[in-house]
Amino acid sequence: MANVVMPQMGESIAEGTIVRWIKKVGDSVDRDEPLFEISTDKVDAEIPSPSAGVLTEIKVKEGETVPVNSVVAIIGAAGEKPAAASGADDGAGAADGAGAGAMPAAVVGQEETSAPSKGTAVDDRSAVAEARPSNAAAPGGTAGPLSKEELRRQKSSPLVRRIAKEHDVDIQQIHGTGISGRVTKHDILGFIESGGAAAAASKQGASAQTGGAQPRTIPTPGPVYKPGENVQVVPMSVMRKKIAEHMVMSAHTSPHVYSVYEVNFGKITQLRDKHKGAYEAAGAKLTFTGFIAKAIVDALRQFPMVNASIDGENIVYKKDINLGIAVALDNGLIVPVIRNADEKNLLGLSRGINDLAVRARSKKLNPDEVQGGTFTITNPGIFGALYGLPLINQPQVAILGVGTIEKRAVVIGDAIAIRPMCNLSMGYDHRLIDGADAGRFLSFVKERLENFDDGWL
User: Fold this and answer.
1) Which of these, 376, 353, 364, 361, lies nearest to 279 by C-alpha position?
2) Any idea which fold 2-76 has?
3) Has 32 been annotated as catalytic?
4) DSSP 8-state secondary structure symbol assigned to residue 374
5) How far is 174 from 191, CA to CA, in rounded Å?
6) Is 275 a catalytic residue?
7) Per the residue annotation, which of 273, 311, 320, 434 is the catalytic one?
8) Which of 27, 143, 164, 275 could form a disulfide with 23 if both were Cys (CB 3.0 to 4.6 A apart)?
9) Fold for the domain defined by 154-193
10) Which of 430, 437, 453, 454 is labelled catalytic?
């Protein structure tokens, strides 16, 4: 038999949610055949089977969240009968794998060397908790109480710790609802929204508030609906919950300001029509998004404050330009990242945009391809919107919204002409970027697009 474990889809990812089982108990599976679908803080992915055989037992149901390296299923030899439906076993094996970190960071098969013990899926998670005692031995081999920082790390992910730092929140004050009392994004965002962060800050006294007072947020209770003939109550999907959490966090973190510029796309329309055949022959699709991406990358080199982030009272200027391109999915959206975008010409950017979009829609992205972005482009114009006012993709400080491209009557010189026009809107964090800065940035982008040179291709 082979254990199937929850893979670690990135260094900072500590748990994953089973979204869907592609195979059911009793089904035959081949090695590397898609077995189940997971969702993590960073990426959704289909996970292949580690070995060929028969899926004899599913230990974790759809919708459940478990730590990485936890056993989620068992694959038996061909012809082996499925396990009884009395519950999941091998809880100790899950604890050994998760606690000792012996499993590789992927879905792998491990031949069992001892008889499994009886239990339930809940027992698996309890065993994981027991494998991580609060007074575990220190790395140097000496046992003792954990430090405050070690307790924080044990009870939260890097993303949660970053949110806590930005809002001056002590994680120890929050009741965690995750596995083994882990503080989740939902926990900390709820704590902040309820005014807990402001209340905690006031207790520390004015002398401790070196970064200025945090605005108190007043929680607004939502309507409570009961299933009936006039409403349908449907739980959010895992992806929708994560999008909701991130958007709430962004709205609470950054004071958003917007500037909108109208851009004449006449020149790049001509260039696109002229070169799209050659690009297709080179394996790339030449789109308006590629031209916009090139102009944005050039602007980010000229205006480094837009390619930055805020860490407390410090400004962090990013040396790399990693461009996020929002991709709409059937059940949400995802933002894959083109790394070192400033090192690519228009052909390279076009290839990267097309490749990431295709793999995003087929759930083939790697975790490192959806993190580390320094600026994001989103395009509501493909659905006909004249412009959009998007929320910043934290911890970035700006985002560009692209409106639909349509022919309009414009004044050129003293004459009225018909030109393909597009509205570009930029949302920016007013803690760092002022209106004048945004104006200079967008003016640069506008000039670049309206006078795009063949040499930039």
Assistant:
1) 353
2) OB fold (Dihydrolipoamide Acetyltransferase, E2P) (2.40.50)
3) no
4) S
5) 7
6) no
7) 434
8) 27
9) Dihydrolipoamide Transferase (4.10.320)
10) 430
